[in-house]
Every structure is written in C-alpha cells, then in structure tokens.
Structure prediction request, 826 residues.
Amino acid sequence: MQHNILILFAHPRLERSKNHHQLLQYIPKSKGITLHDLYEEYPDFNIDVKREKELLTQHDIIIWQHPFYWYSIPPLLKQWIDIVFEFGWAYGTGGTALRGKKVLHVITTGDPETVYAENQPHSFTIPQLLAPLQQTARECSMEFLPPFVIHNAHRLPFEELEKHCRDYYLLLVLLQQDNLPLTVIHQHKYINYWVQNKREA
Amino acid sequence: MSEFFLLQAIIYLSAGVFCVALAKRIGLNSVLGYLIGGMLIGPYILGLVGNEGEDIMHFAEFGVVMMLFLIGLELEPAQFWQMRKAVLGLGSIQFGVTTLLFYGVGLAIGWQWQMSLAIAMALSMSSTAIVLQTLKEKGLSQSAAGQASFSVLLFQDIVVIPILALLPLLTSQSQIHIVEKHSQAIIKDLPAWLQTAMVIGAVATVLLAGNYLVVPILRMIAKTKLRELFTASALLLVVSVSYLMELVGLSAALGAFLAGVVLANSEFRHELESNIQPFKSLLLGLFFIGVGASIDFKLIAQKPLLVTAIVLGLAVLKAVVLFIAGKIFKMKTDQNILFTFGLAQVGEFAFVVLSFSFQLAIIDKTWNDLLMASTAVSMTLSPILLIINEKYIDPYLGTQEKEPDKSTDTIEEKHDVIIAGFGHFGSTIGRFLRANGIEATILDFDSDRVDLLRKMGFKVYYGDATRIDLIAAAGAENAKILIAAIDSPAANAQLIKNVKKHFPHLHILARAKNRFDAYELMDVGVTDIYRETLYTSVHLAVDALKFLGFRAYTATRQGQNFIRYDEKSMRKLQLDRYNLQQYALSAKHQIEMQEKLLQEDLFQNLTDRGHSWGGTLPHEEEAKA
Prediction:
C-alpha cells in the first residue's frame, strides 16, 4: 500500500524565492501527494485546526517545506504545530493520532554546508539545529527522518537548482513506496544523499 | 394665564431654587431644602402662600405619582420576583408589626377599632419620596440598607391598594363627611361591596390596557419620530391612569406604579423614563414644598408637647420594629441603623389614607389635623435624622458599605457596554459581542427595527440616543464602553459630544462614515474611530490583489499596512486640512483631499520593496543578467 504524503509548505514571501518556486513545480501531480500552502490558506494566521487534523489523519508522511530563517521554521508553521498538535490528540494521554507517521524537513538555506559545523560561523550542523523539531516528532511518536537540504540558496546556478529539484521529485516518488528502508535512510546526514545513492544505483 | 398663577409659580419656584441651592451648599440634601423652603413661604412664616397650599398639594402630589411610575418602570416583574423574599418578608414584618403596635396604642387611648385600624395603617407608611431621593443622592441605592429600604417601601406602595380598597368597608354609611374636592362622585353612593369591586376592576384595567393598548399606541407615536409627541403621550398616560384611580378613590400613585410595572418590559422603558424624569423632579420638589407649607404651626404652637410626643413616639416605635426586622434579615449594624433611621418617618401615603378616612368619617377632625401636622413634621425630621446618623453614629460603627463598583444590582438592568444605533453596523457589533458572552444595552430610534429585533430576542430600547437623559437611563453611570454606531453622522457626533461632557469616564468607540466625519470626531478628542469606508474597501482591495495572483499573506499584510498608514496620515491631515481652503465639505475640497492623499502615498513605502527576508525578485535577476 502506498504512502500518502502531505507537504506543509510555509513561505511568507514565495514571490521572492526562486528556489521554492522551482521546487514546487517538481512536486508530482499524484493523488497520493497533497501540497498544502499554509501562508496562502491562512494569511491571517487563523488556522482551522479541525481541517488540519483531518489532513494529517489522511496522510502517512508529513513534509515541512520552508526556508531556514534564523535556524528555524517560519512563524506560521510554528503556530501550526502549536495549535494543531493538541494534548490528547497528538501526544499525552490518548494522543495517538500521529503515531508511526514519518516527518521530515525540506529546507533552503543561504550558506554552504561547511559553515554549519562546530567552530564554524553557525556552530552547529543542520540536524543539530533541528533538535527541537526532532523532539516534537518524538513526543508525538513520529519518525523524524533526515532533512532534505538545499545549500547556497542565494547563489545557486540554475542547473544546480534543477538537479536539486529532480532529487526532490525522486524523493517524493521513493517515499510513496511502502517498506521504506528506514535504517538505511537514518545512516545519512541529509536525505538528499540517500536519494542520490538511489539514483546512481 | 392669570397673574395670580404666575405669581404663585414665581414664589414656589424661587423658594425651591433658593433653598435647595442653599441646602446643597451646606451639605444637606435637596429634600430638606424644599421642605424648609415650603415652611418659609407657608402661611405661618412669610405668608406668601395661604390656604391655597391645599391646591398646590393636590397638584404636587403628581410628583409622587410620577415617582412611583418611574419606580414601576425600573422594576421588571422578573426582578421583582427575585426580590420577593425581601419585599414580602421585610415589608410584611415592618408593616404588620407596626400596624399592630399602633392599633394597640389606639385602642388603649380609647379610639373606636375602625379609627384605630385606619390610623395605624396610615402611620405605618414611610416616605417613598424622601427615602429614595435621599438614598439616590447619597449613592446608597445599591447598598444593603438601600435595597432593604426599597423592598419595604415597595411593599407599602403595594399594600396601599388593598388598604384604600377596604377603607370604605370600615365606615358606617350614615355619616360620610361631605367633601367637595375629591371626585369620587361616581362611586361614592354605591354600596361598599360594589365600591370594592370597582376598585379591583380599575386595577385590572390598568394592567390589561398597559399591555394591549398603551404599547401599540406608543409604537405608533414612535413612528412619527416627533419627540414632543412622545413626551406628551408619556404625560397623558400617567395623568389618565391617575384620573382613573382617583375616580374609584384609589391613590393615583399606585395606579402610576402599576402602569410603570406593566411598561417596564416594553422597549419604551428608557424613553419614558427620560421623558417623565424632569417633570417628576420638579413636581416632587413642589410636593416637598407643599408639605413644608402645610405644616400647621398654629396647631403645633397650641399643643407643642402633644405634637412632639406623637412625632417622637411614632418615630421610636417604627424604628424599633425596623431595627428588629433588619436584625432578623441579618443586616450589618451600620446598614441596619441607616435602614432604621431612614424609614422611621411617617410618609406621604399617610396624608392620603388619613384624608380618605376623614372623608369616610372613620376619624374625626381633631385627630385628623393633629396627625396630618405630625406627619409633616415627621417627614421634615427625616432628613435631619439621616444627617445625625451620618455625622455622629455611622462613623463609630466601623464598616461602611458603599455602592459596589460592579453593577451587581438586580433593580436595574445595566451592562458594561451601551450600543447606540442598531442598524446593520450596530447590530453586527451586537451579534459579535453576544457571541462572546457580552450583553449590551442597546438603544435605537427606529421603532420598526426595535420591534423586529425584540422579536429576535435582543433587548433593544427605543429612544433618541442623543438625549443625555436617555443615555443616563441606559446606565451610562456604570457602563465602561459606549459604542456610537448611529447611522446619521450628525446624530452620532452629537451623542459623542454629550457623552464626553457628562460621562467622561465612558470609553467611546465611534463609527464614522468617512474621513470627514472622522476629523470631526478627532477634533472632539475621540481616539477610537472606525471608518465604514476604510476597512471594507481595503478588504475588497486585498481580495482583488489575490485574484491578480498576489500571495494571500502578502496582500493581507499590505492591507494591514495600508490601514495603519492611513490612520497615521489621518492624524497628520487632521491639522493640515484647515490649511486647505476653509469651505468645509465641498466637492472641490474632497477632490483636493484625495489628491493630497495620493501624492503622499507616492512618498510612502507602500509597495512591498523591503529587503528583509533577503533575496531579489525574479525579474530583477533577469534585469541584472
């Protein structure tokens, strides 16, 4: 049985982002993949919790696609997590609605991978910086997969960007299959590398 | 109009104006001022008014009538039901025990039992007029003592009905005094049982007509939108009820009270209240002057000891009963003392019951005169008693209960929010507030709409909100917010100016049709102004941007920014607009204003060009390449 994927897309200024604009073009038009554009749906930040819960229930894999502003997620996505992941529904007593679902980030960031490390300008790796979200997933009994990261977002030549977009497409196709090799996936720092290995294989 | 009448009016009014102003200056209440004024001009001191004091009394009794009408108006049956324990409990103890005591005293003196009973009932009454007026002036209406006093007085006002109805049964038919003044000709010659039946019939008439005749007529009159017509019909209503009651020999005050209760649930409550209020105050003043003028100093001079004994004896007996009743109802001592002192006097209903009994030959002239004089003296002493309590007793009793800040009262319906104008604009606000559990007092001047909204379960009152007295009646004293949402900008501005002046504590949220109304309101110092033409237009424009492919969030933010900027520029232009030519709202001026605005917009960063969040626009990229 195929996995359904819910892409929660959060970008407060999509009109200024070539990368995300392009990434969105590569999302397969498949019945099992839902693109949910948060800033377009809720420009006033007034999130319809009931509807969001229904969407989550209907999907097995959740993708948080967003620019990596200040080492974190944009405010509307944070708001979404804060009010949708309710006690007794997502976590805590009787909170089992998200149990076993997979969740991962799709991130664009301006700087290269090398400066996200100890003794470098950003001091931490991206997976380290995502710790609060990883713990959020764990608290809701979800599987937190390695992130899909696009570095050098501002200076990316168009061909490079295209390559990333094709990887993204492939990732979505792969994730839809059942029997994901989770142990293998978890061996990669970024899920990009797993996709590239699959492509070369 | 006769010169004589004018002269009389001058004498009475100047006595009132002068003495009340003086009384207020030295910190006494207005009731005492009126009483002293009456004594001064009465036949025994200045002699400016002679025996026509009687006629004046008759005319001034209307003050009491109107006061009871207003009390009735403020008393919805539902609230009365909530107070029933206090009214029936405290009231019946006070009245029953006091009457029994006096009855015993009367028999001991050797009066006939009929006379003893009639006098005992008359003297058990306290003065609604003095007590309520005084409590209101001191802001004690909502204190425990105030509520208890109100309950007892209300019971007395009600119990007067059966008393006056039953008095004819006490008389021996043979010896009715011939009285020319009272117009009871119609039922005087009927047998006693029929008189009683007529009385009951009259009361029933008031109750039914109020519901099924008066309210529809008021609605019709309201549709004419003529204010003076409404005032006239309010007066007509009170006068007719009084006349009907007098016709069957009942107190007019009672009829008015009943009429008030019947209308308390109608949408005209506040409007009637504010129409009758000024008449009431004036006539009540006259009434007190009349009481002062009618004090028979000659009689008192002949039998000073007897009158003093009667007045003090009455006060002491009444006070004892009151104090014990207060104790039974677990009132705090300071409240109980206030309650006791307040109600220890003999009230204006005593005049009514005594004179009626005298006409029916139940009591003789000597005692009638004596007790009338004692009653007047007793009423005069009442405010003095309260002052003594306030100055010398209360401070030593420790706790003092003041009006509670929050309107926890059950007597009047008061909300934190008043909405003036309940058209499409106001009713949307009302619905939203209600959805969030906030009830508002709503005023509207369109009787058809009021009708409809009441059918839908809103509590809307009919009335012209620009009248400050109506705003007061709607509870502006205790409200926190006034939402001025009247459709006509002129009326809305008028309302706001009035409220700013008389109720500066009220926070005003004002509707404005456009920039120009908003400027007007800003000039008066209103800060929270909501232009009909701003938010809706921007909202539409935001959606237009979305249809053109803008991101929803960006369009929304742009809309919010535009509103923020526009409100800022309003403040700037408010001052500038006088530099534009002075002819206020001509089309040319409007166009100049628009032009100025559009010019200003060019210099503002109103487009989304900020460089936060990094990145460049795709088309800028292409331009560089």
